[in-house]
């Protein structure tokens, strides 16, 4: 099995004096090979740690410029062609990004279509940090009088000593740790001067379109088919044995169908609990496509007790999103160890309005889609750490920049049509999937896996009144985030039951 060959995450510190002692290894949730990196430019020193899945090169240097790239680029051919350098398409992704930087400067980040986070030390000793269009590899930073720390995991920055400074142009995380989040689709240039950090420039590299195109059925369907095929192909990266996490819904089945169409052996895996599963619909798809399929059953009380792991990986306090991510994290943690590239159908429902399948009329559906596209940033749904906790690389074709642009901007009448949700996608996959899959109604992962109901049942069992369940889940998620991300506790030290008890106690104390 070839597996992915990339840097999955990093932590780096840029300061004006090399640290006397070697930097302690930060405690990443991402499990991979860690290697130390260091570089210097114009009196600034970069020292850090990269966590990778088999990547030979971590830090790339050329002409006094140093780049650390986590993740990968999907429009390699296009970029290499524009650079007039065909051989650039055959080097590492980091080499390509550095060549793009030399050619375009900041505009490079407007041209790259990928799943990445980058830190670059430029020839003038300035620090450039950038996310992909969707911020799908979360990137965090913290500054103090000695320099700037940048990391793909907030927890590695939260416990750092020193008085934190404000960084203009990045989003300060509440909690007093001084950790900031680099927003999705932005690139920042930071200057460090003794005792001060200045944002010299912030560039937006992508903004979700709010305009809509009223194209004919045939054109829309053809466009979605072509862009999905391309998004899947570029994410396979010639891996001979990719894995698709398959629910048997239209989104993941579409990814599986295109993966199979590109040849090679495709593994598919479905998870469920004793309470609920989607095994039958997934089996129908796997049988039709001929994937190497497996099923995994997890007991729902075990699943819910893994919530601290979901918080550790996603670094969020939103209980609704945690309910979507928990089943995937639990699944990844139970896959056989080893290098693995996973493709998911995650994210398709956001531009297509799948979560709002009953919202009428069309302009309201379009408004909620616009709202969801304006509020995804910071939810970390597509973070690679979700699978990185199990040493696995995952990627999400529906959030490919070109496909996403296309999906968002379609007339909502193509998203809901003839009484069917996600009509344009279903139509684009006609002939590739069984009829029953094409017409299968949407089921959310939290419903199909029974995650929401399992968490609810556990709370009811512990005496939480039904009317307060949502509120209690929200408070538990916030407490776990505080302990695990801001106070850097390991998820194994955090018990679901203790968090629940403390949450309930805090509430009654508050009420008195
Ligand atoms: P859903 O669309 O059901 O699942 C997301 C992906 O997770 C699927 O495409 C599939 O790859 C994988 N998956 C789901 N269930 C299983 C299963 N039982 N076994 C194996 N793999 C599975 C929630 C949702 O409905 O998930 N996610 C939405 C977006 C949430 C809203 N976010 C937001 N507004 N920012 C989505 O678009 O994926
Ligand atoms: Mg979906
Ligand atoms: Mg589903």
Strand order of the largest sheet: 2-3-1-9-8-11-10
| CATH homologous superfamily heading of the largest domain | HUPs
Overall residue-averaged pLDDT value: 94
The share of residues in extended strands comes to 15-25%
End-to-end distance, in Å?
60 Å
Note down, in words, how this protein is organized.
- The chain is an alpha+beta fold and 512 residues long.
- It folds into 2 domains: 199 residues, Aminohydrolase, N-terminal nucleophile (Ntn) domain (Glutamine Phosphoribosylpyrophosphate, subunit 1, domain 1, 4-Layer Sandwich), CATH 3.60.20.10; 237 residues, HUPs (Rossmann fold, 3-Layer(aba) Sandwich), CATH 3.40.50.620.
- 38% of the residues lie in helices and 21% in strands.
- It has a 7-stranded antiparallel β-sheet. A 6-stranded antiparallel β-sheet has the order 4-5-6-7-12-13.
- α9 crosses α20.
- The longest helix has 20 residues.
- The mean pLDDT is 94.
- The site of arginine-N-methylcarbonyl phosphoric acid 5'-adenosine ester has 29 residues, from α6, β15, α10, α11 and α18.
What is the fold's blueprint, element by element?
Elements: E1 6-15, E2 33-41, E3 44-53, E4 59-62, E5 65-73, H1 76-83, H2 93-104, H3 108-111, E6 114-121, E7 127-131, E8 140-144, E9 147-151, H4 155-158, E10 171-172, E11 180-181, E12 186-193, E13 196-204, H5 217-236, E14 243-245, H6 250-261, E15 267-273, H7 279-289, E16 292-298, H8 300-305, H9 307-314, H10 319-334, E17 341-343, H11 349-352, H12 362-375, H13 385-388, E18 393-395, H14 401-408, H15 412-415, H16 423-428, H17 435-438, H18 445-448, H19 451-461, H20 469-486, H21 496-511
Helix pairs in contact: 1-2, 5-6, 5-14, 6-7, 9-10, 9-20, 19-20, 20-21
